[in-house]
Amino acid sequence: MSTDHLHTPTTSPEPTRPARALWVAAAMTALIAAFFQLREHWGHVAGYWPYLLLLACPVMHLFHGHGGHGHHGHHGADTGRSTNRDA
Fold first, then answer.
1. What angle do CA 64, 77, 73 make, to 5 degrees?
2. What is the pLDDT of residue 87?
3. Chain segment 21-54, per-residue pLDDT in tens
4. Which residues are CB-neighbours of 23 under 8 A, at least 6 positions away?
5. Averaged confidence pLDDT in the chain
6. What CA–CA distance (Å, rounded) separates 81 from 33?
7. What does the chain look like in DSSP terms, one character per residue?
8. What gap in Å lies between CA 14 and CA 70, rounded to an integer?
9. Would you say residue 15 has pLDDT above 80?
C-alpha cells in the first residue's frame, strides 16, 4: 500500500487584509454618513415610519428562510405517531 499523496496547495477565496480593511472603512463611512443624513432630515423621515413598518412585514416573510426551524432530515420520522392530543 502506497502512502505517497500529492497535495496541491489551495488558495483561500477570502480577500486579502488590505482589501478587507478597505471594505470595513467604506462601510463605517457609509454608516456615519447615513446617521448624519437621518439626523438632519428626521422631520421628513418620521412621517414614513408607519409605511416602513408595514413594508417590513412582507420583507421579513420574503427573507425569512423557510424550512429552518430544525426539521432537516425528519420528513417521515413521525408518520406513525398520532396527532390527536385529546386522546
1. 45
2. 55
3. 999 999 999 999 999 999 998 888 888 888 988 9
4. 15
5. 77
6. 57
7. -------------SPPHHHHHHHHHHHHHHHHHHHHHHHHTHHHHGGGHHHHHHHHHHHHHHHS-TT-SS-TT-SSTTSSS---S--
8. 29
9. no
pTM of the shown model? 0.41
Residue 15, C-beta contacts closer than 8 angstroms, at least 6 positions apart: 23
57: which 3 cell numbers? 412585514
What's the pLDDT score for residue 34?
A: 94
Question: Which amino acid, one-letter code, is at 19?
Answer: A
Q: Which three cell numbers stand for residue 32?
A: 456615519
Residues constituting the chain: 87
Amino acid at 64: H
